[in-house]
Amino acid sequence: MQKHTRLPTITQIIICLAGFLGLAFSFTSLLNLPIQLALYIAWFIIMALGIWLGHNYKDLEEAATQGISKGMGAILILIAVGALVGTWIAGGIVPGIIYYGLKIIHPSIFLLATLIICSVTALSTGTSWGAAGTAGIAMMGIGEGLGIPLPLVAGAVLSGVYFGDKLSPLSDSVILASSMSGVETFEHIKGMLPISLTSYILTAIMFTFAGMQYGGNVDMAQVETVMLALEQSFNISPMAFVPVVLVIALLANKKPSFPVISFGAVLGVIWAIAFQHKDLISAVQSAWSPFSITSGVDFIDNILSRGGIASMLGSVAVIIFGLGFGGLLDRVGILQVIADKMSAFITNASNLTVSTLFTAFLANIFGSAMYVSLILTPKIMSKNYDRLGLHRKMLSRNAEFGGTLTSGMVPWSDNGIFMAGVLGVPTLAYLPYMWLSFTCIILTIVFTMLGKFISTASEAPATVSNDSCAAPAAAS
User: Fold this and answer.
1) Each residue of 87-133: pLDDT tens digit?
2) Under a CB-based contact definition with an 8 Å cutoff, are residues 199 and 155 in contact?
3) Dihedral sign (CA 369, 194, 114, 119)
4) What are the φ and ψ backbone dihedral angles of 390, each rounded to 5 degrees?
5) pLDDT, tens digit, for every residue of 322-353?
6) 7 with 53: CB under 8 angstroms?
7) CA 267, 269, 273 angle in degrees (round to 5)?
8) Where are the alpha helices (DSSP H) in 35-171?
9) Distance from first CA to last CA of the chain, Å, rounded?
10) Are the C-beta atoms of residues 151 and 433 closer than 8 Å to each other?
């Protein structure tokens, strides 16, 4: 016989979520403890509430595992990206890109070039993580070699990879946001285009002016020192671009991301043996353990001593715990209560847009994973779009903007941890320079208030059930 369950009260919800937020903040900012432990403890807080409300433990455990299963595609991609980063450094691929970048890119246009290169890479591959772990790392190295502040460079990298990721039909965030909202993928992308392109142009102008400040202040002696150190530590060759071209071409042709990125890691091993003259064991080991280098130039040692599957295990744990936490929030009824309470305050497209963006951001804070945000936000907000007669592509657009573009802003989220780790810049240091994210969110609110880019339900019908969840194409 089914045991009777109750919905939580607002007071209970506030206590539980405030408890998690307190744990997350104290663990990361005060106690220097890993966020994974805070998420682990938070599971039992929500489970305790669930049992108090009449749920049995077995159902709650099932809810957590079902939540985790929705993010397994991201976990596989994250593992592959770790292997690729390690072997591409060991194989001289990333060092080669840095070397030729220092040789070719002029400092005055470097930040603009970083934005464009990273956005094109993410757009063609459908993965912000893969773009940041390859082109992003290379641009960080070039930027430091040119004497440009790394948080600013990281801001250009993140602006580029998130722009490309959220407009790529290969992206998991695009597929997830559209499918959970009940919108066809290309309809979802079309709905994002006007605001995305406007914000991209404004962001490009901002990074162009920022880059001009450093055009005449570059110490070319330092650049030459860096290039010499790279030449002494690696066999630099134009062949470094071959694996990059192959991997991007395969992803652009819609080949499955996990095997393609893993194939790229294998190419890194081959390049390490063939061009860097490493033995088989050390070349293969670079796929697991972070690459280590002592070149005598601190920034080269910092930017290139990374990669490997082992370096990604912390982010894997965040995704697992975050998705499980989201599944528990759904099963216990917290999402239903929040959705019902919010409905009373939502009366038009403007405050619905603001509410959706804010809900997606909160989901990143409490769920600690972009997947949690993109899964939960449509569940919470969909009834309000239907009630006001608005097309679901507005829901998918706002969920994507609020979920994807803010995911790297939360220090304990999957994206915050990954981006800080792979770029070597703390989350709160690069946060002020995530100009595309801020611009896009602000424009979304402003345009909606002005009555622009508002779609009604009478337009082209959605073709995807909002209960479906397509398998992710690539990790973000």
Assistant:
1) 988 898 888 887 887 777 777 888 998 999 888 878 866 778 878 87
2) no
3) positive
4) -95, 145
5) 888 888 988 898 877 887 787 778 889 899 99
6) yes
7) 115
8) 35-52, 57-69, 72-90, 93-104, 110-125, 128-131, 137-145, 150-167
9) 43
10) yes
